[in-house]
Design brief:
Blueprint lengths: L2 E2 L1 E2 L30 E4 L3 E4 L7 E5 L4 E8 L2 E5 L8 E4 L3 E3 L4 E5 L9 E3 L3 H7 L4 H18 L2 E2 L2 E4 L14 E10 L5 E10 L20 E8 L5 H18 L8 E8 L13 E5 L7 H8 L16 H11 L7 E8 L17 H12 L2 E8 L7 H11 L9 E5 L3 H25 L19 H19 L6 E7 L11 E8 H20 L7 H11 L15 H4 L3 H4 L13 H6 L2 H23 L18 E5 L5
Parallel strand pairs: 2-13, 16-17, 16-19, 19-20, 20-21
Antiparallel strand pairs: 1-12, 3-6, 3-9, 4-5, 6-7, 7-8, 10-14, 10-23, 11-13, 14-15, 15-22, 17-18, 23-24
Length: 646
């Protein structure tokens, strides 16, 4: 079927749930006991009081979510929740199964093309199995672009994704995933093929969210997080000199009063070295940082420590998280944290780590909480030679940005003059990006042919990160229309550069489910720590403790060789997701055969996940009533990336 090509915005899932008394339970998903069948309404339909009835009890809209209580003769009985309330009947053809809260989100990036949404899965297989997928994808995209511009049709492409980005921290737009398949490119990596519920931009009779401020009002925040331990005084002064010049040049451009430089100083764990005075401190906040004089006054109060810390490593992650949590980022659409240090960080398994976070977890928090990017200026001094390799590895992980290169800037020999010049160039680069964006009102970002190729220049990754955040800001300020539903097929990898991912898969997780995940992981790590010298007793202890927990006394695994997932009753929850957990599939026999160091590595990784979950739970502004079931805490959901699962 030929269909008109229209811009894709995304999906807003909404329903209203009246509170009535519980009477029945929904049907379980086939093969499961504790997960229930659910559906998305596919088209506007009138719900009836009985199957094949004539009396309408409620008019249903596309994308409403319901639990299924019965199926009979082409009809299904549905309800808005799992409490047996307000039950009604609809034709089965009016809805599509959506049994688990998995959704796709558009990870807009400046260096990937607009996502192609296909009317069938076969054209995607034709592309990925070809010797030149980029060429076939370009032909499909060109045809779709022509149809979009001329109002025509495309034989295979239903819709194109937007060039601007949906900001998942600000908007409720998601694409429910109806089914998944795993395939492999003829020339390379695995790819997930997703059947999704997608939205069209011209749906009638649906409200339009209020338009945000003018795209030209974009402001950028850059917070320098500077190591202020002994030996750092030359770099503190170099930071001052570099940014003073950036302020002076920005004053005569569109970046004037639009770029703020904040300043955080950090040292190390005070319990290990009380004489350090502070572990992290704000010297310039982001409102002060809009003014050059205020910034210079703040940095003039920053001094290096008078006493040494415990050892060469410093708690850099504490400084970064302090900036993340204590700066007010709300007025800024583009957000950067720049870490300046000559030492490696205290990783999550370091007893002196104040955060308990890994580089990957801290990176994830920065991207999820503020949609920002992390950069590191690593001062590779002679004094830290033995630390350079491990520090670089950690900082490259810390500064990874989707579909780009890590924002890692090594300063060879720790030369203060080289650092000063690099800091100046970085500040000027970000200020110029902001000036260009504001001058064009964002229009220059939307040129279909203006996709930035990665270059060898050290600022290519910074360019991608900056423009990606600008696309996100543009998507927010332009507003978006709540959509009608249509179904499409999409690949989660870019056809041109298969290492890049324009989509990510997320799980809409409730606070109760997040709590269960955290509780299950705590059972595992606590029993692993208690049975280090008796690994053969580990699984028995996990099963015993899990059975004693009120949430699962009737679900203790009775398998002869259970996996960790089944031992703590997570097997049903994890199965069926397009995610494979190496840790949770470990069996008792596997565990006993593992050397103690490998067991400890697994335990440390689970501790890292626990810390990540704790921070997700605390991020009150990111728990949203995605399903429109009401503002009660039990209905709030967090859009967690699948690889956050254990």
């Amino acid at each position: 079927m030929l269909q008109r090509v229209i811009p894709v915005i995304a999906v807003l899932v909404a329903l209203a749930a009246p509170a009535w008394a519980q009477t029945r339970s929904p049907l379980p998903i086939e093969g499961k006991q504790s997960l229930f069948q659910r559906v998305l309404i596919r088209e506007r339909t009138d719900a009836k009081s009985e199957a094949q009835g004539s009396d309408t009890v409620q008019a249903l809209s596309p994308l409403q979510v319901f639990f299924v209580y019965d199926r009979a003769d082409g009809w299904m009985e549905i309800g808005p929740d799992d409490q047996g309330k307000a039950l009604m009947w609809i034709p089965e053809a009016a809805a599509v199964d959506w049994n688990q809260n998995i959704v796709a989100t558009l990870e807009g990036s400046d260096n990937v093309g607009r996502v192609l949404f296909f009317n069938d899965i076969d054209p995607i297989y034709d592309i990925i199995e070809s010797e030149n997928p980029a060429e076939l994808a370009k032909a499909a995209r060109d045809e779709a672009l022509k149809a979009e511009q001329e109002g025509g049709t495309s034989e295979t492409v239903i819709a194109l994704g937007p060039r601007e980005t949906i900001d998942q921290r600000q908007n409720l737009y998601v694409m429910p995933i109806l089914s998944t398949e795993e395939a492999v490119f003829d020339i390379g990596p695995f790819v997930n093929l997703l059947q999704v519920a997608v939205a069209s931009a011209n749906a009638p009779n649906l409200p339009k969210p209020p338009k945000g401020q003018d795209p030209a009002d974009l402001k950028t925040a850059v917070v320098f997080v500077v190591d202020t331990t002994i030996s750092m005084e030359p770099y503190i002064r170099a930071t001052r000199d570099a940014l003073e010049e950036v302020y002076r040049e920005a004053a005569g451009s569109d970046a004037a009063n639009a770029v703020s430089f904040g300043l955080v100083g950090y040292r190390d764990n005070l319990e290990a070295a009380p004489g350090l005075e502070y572990d992290a401190r704000i010297f310039v906040d982001l409102q002060q940082g809009l003014d050059a004089k205020a910034f210079l006054n703040g940095i003039d109060h920053m001094q290096e420590a008078e006493t040494t810390s415990k050892n060469f490593r410093e708690d850099a992650y504490k400084g970064v998280e302090y900036a993340l949590q204590n700066m007010d980022w709300s007025d800024f659409g583009s957000r950067f944290i720049v870490l300046v240090t000559d030492a490696g960080p205290r990783e999550f398994d370091d007893e002196l780590s104040a955060t308990g976070l890994s580089a990957e977890s801290l990176n994830r928090l920065v991207r999820e909480r503020i949609g920002g990017a992390l950069a590191v200026m690593h001062l590779r001094t002679q004094r830290g030679t033995k630390d350079h390799s491990s520090a670089e590895s950690a900082y490259r992980k810390l500064t990874e940005f989707p579909n780009s290169t890590p924002l890692y800037f090594p300063i060879e020999n720790g030369d203060p003059s080289i650092y000063r010049e690099t800091a100046r160039k970085l500040g000027q680069f970000i200020a110029q990006q902001t000036s260009d964006y504001r001058g064009s009102g964002g229009d220059e970002l939307l040129n279909e042919d203006d996709i930035i190729e990665e270059e060898a220049d050290q600022f290519s990754g910074l360019n991608t990160a900056s423009r990606t955040m600008q696309l996100a800001y543009l998507g927010k300020t332009e507003g978006a229309r709540a959509p009608d539903l249509f179904e499409a097929y999409v690949a989660d990898r870019d056809f041109d550069r298969t290492g890049l991912k324009p989509l990510s898969v997320r799980l809409l997780i409730s606070k109760a489910d997040l709590s269960n995940l955290e509780e299950a992981l705590r059972i595992i790590v606590e029993q692993a720590e208690r049975n280090v010298v008796n690994p053969d007793q580990f699984f028995a202890q996990v099963l015993g403790v899990a059975a004693d927990m009120s949430r699962r006394p009737d679900k203790v695994s009775r398998q002869s060789d259970p996996s960790l997932a089944s031992a703590v009753a997570l097997d049903e929850y994890l199965s069926g997701l397009p995610y494979k957990s190496q840790i949770m599939s470990i069996t008792e026999d596997d565990w006993v055969r593992l050397p103690i160091p490998e067991q400890q590595t697994i335990v440390n990784r689970l501790y890292d996940k626990i810390e990540r979950y704790r921070r997700y739970n605390e991020a009150t502004d990111q728990w949203v009533d995605y399903l429109g079931a009401g503002p009660q805490a039990a209905n709030l959901l967090y859009p967690m990336l699948l690889d956050d699962l254990p």
